[in-house]
Amino acid sequence: MVPVLGPRQLGVGVAGGCEGAIHAARCYLESMPEDHIMVKLDFSNAFNCLHRHDMLLSVQRNLPDIYAYCYAAYAHPTQLFHGQYSIMSEEGPQQGDPIGPLLFSMTIEPLLTSLTSCLTLGYLDDLTIGDRQHTVAADVQRVKEIGENMGLTLNVGKCELFCHPNTSITDPLLLSFTRRNLKDASLLGAPLFIGPELDDAWSTRLADLRRAVERLSLLGAQDALVLLRASFSAPRVQHLMRCSPSVDHPALSEFDRILRSAICKITNCDLSENQWLQAGLPIRDGGLGIRRVSSLALPAFLASAAGSLSLQDAILAQADTKPDSYFALYLPRWEAAVGGPPPDRPLSGKQSFWDRPGVLSDKATVESNLSTEHGKASFLAASAPHSGDWLLSLPITACGLRLEDDAVRTAVALRLGVSLCVPHICHCGAQVDAFGVHSLICKHAAGRISRHQAINDVIARAFVTADIPVSKEPTGLSIKDNKRPDGLTLLPWREGKPLAWDVTVICPLAQSYVTKYPTPGAAAELAASRKSDKYANLPNSYLFEPIALENLGAINESATSLISELGRKISVKSNDSRESIFLFQRLSVTLQRFNSILLRESFVVEDPNK
């Protein structure tokens, strides 16, 4: 249907149609001659008023393959029940019908095609027309007349007209529209220019964020962190950043300030400037994935404008326009920041292409600002693969994926290098610093055994879920030293041999490792090598796999492959391709939960009754 509807109807089947329409409208207004105008048309309750007879004729003409389905659904009125009342639904596509937008767009497609203005675009029932005044007036009259025959009535009170200040409007119908300044133009929820309209849009987003942060304080830390990252932070203003020229807007810094305050409040952590910069990095780069909008505004706008260039050209094919002035302004700034022009031609529409250089620059800044060996080791560990899997897990109690608030605080503090506690003496007599490193490696901590059993239980249960029976801590595998691995599959795993595994957890922040292994995951590989040496005498009839995890979540490479393969086997049974992801998340959440437990166990609690 794209060749039939595009490039005039952009609401169905056109990738980037909304953004392309916005950028095209901006280009048109920037180049609009003095005798041209642009109008935005609004219909009253359009979807519920469209005649079904016209809708079915359109389906029969354009999509005969689904005509029988549509006829069965819409040829006769539908009885809707509301309590003791019943209402006959006789017009328009049913609310919730997944093909409703397609049915509406196909029905009004002949109307759009009949318009002669050089700018004619529609996004479902939102129509925008631009040309000389008499041409636009004729097209608006045509929309009014033909639309009424289809059941669509113009809502004159919401229709808007944009023109130059000295333009005189003579058409009676156009005079009934609300006249707006060019700088106040907006389309599909996005202001087109810098001005009061953009200021109001950002003020609304700031108010929404403040209200959301207040309400997030009523939730658990893990729930609040997930919602903040996935909904209320950058995703909430993504459309505004991609479609409106917000790069230098002062609201960006205020939005980031509120985000920083929210993270501090949710996690009970006091973030320094460098730690806040790290928190704004993507999860795979050692951050919390709560992106700073001040760093996203430029790549977001460039990605949207560049990705829709061909669509803009198609929309404006009949109009004499100049390139988008904001795109021309922002592109050199991006090139100066990254040290050269973008290599891809045509320009990429992927936001990650434009965003990645800035991420790498921020990451380098974070690393250069780390002055202590502990800080460097913490950032390396946080940058390792799978170290941030707990951040991506949904807090589902029944699946063992919920973390207590203190566990979230501990996990965030370890990841960002924030102080965990007041320095104190461990119950074993050793000194625990503000980062709690000793608590993670104390050999007298009972939680170490519980953690080992919990992680091993996750692995064993995964094998059983994949229909592979296992035995925990089997005896008699090695006659020479009688060592017992943590588990053994009772069926062959590969090459006709059963698999034995052994779990270990290592702390990359320990003093003995922070300077020796300057690469992410190196401590896990060292621990895995030690385990392999320990079980070197295991008979060749068994396969052995060390499963070495770091406190912050990194896993040795061979164990990562094992867990991924195990997840794929579970996926065969469950028909859910995400099983490997879920398995990594369960391991990551278990690690973070016990990091908090180990820290708690390092305190010597005095009896208040003594």
Question: Could you list some keywords that capture this structure?
Answer:
4-stranded mixed beta sheet, 5-stranded mixed beta sheet, single chain, 25 helices, elongated, 610 residues, 15 strands, alpha+beta
What does the model show?
This protein is an alpha+beta fold and 610 residues long. The chain is built from 25 helices and 15 strands. It has helices spanning 2-5, 17-31, 46-49, 52-62, 67-74, 100-114, 133-150, 172-175, 196-216, 221-232, 238-243, 251-267, 273-279, 293-307, 309-315, 325-338, 351-369, 373-383, 389-392, 405-416, 437-441, 447-465, 522-534, 557-574, 579-601, and strands spanning 36-41, 78-82, 85-89, 119-123, 126-132, 160-162, 178-180, 186-187, 190-191, 424-425, 431-432, 470-472, 487-489, 499-506, 543-550. It has a 5-stranded mixed β-sheet, with helices on both faces. Helix 9 (196-216) runs antiparallel to helix 10, helix 14 packs antiparallel against helix 17 (351-369) and helix 22 runs antiparallel to helix 25 (579-601). The longest helix has 23 residues, at 579-601. The model has no long low-confidence stretch (mean pLDDT 92).
Offer a quick outline of the entry.
With 610 residues, the chain is of the alpha+beta class.
